[in-house]
Amino acid sequence: MKELCIEGNPIPWKRAGRRRIGADIITYDRQLKEKEQIRWKMRDDFREEPFRVPLKVEIYFFMPIPKAASRKQREQMIRGQISHMKRPDIDNMAKFVLDCMTGVIFNDDAQINELDLKKRYATSPRTKIVITPKDSNIVADLPEDDEMKEDKRYEEKKAERQAKSRKSNGRVQVGNFTHWLKEGPSGEVTPTSSSDSFIRS
Question: Domains, the chain, ranges and CATH?
Answer without folding.
Answer: 2-133 (3.30.1330.70), 146-200 (no CATH)
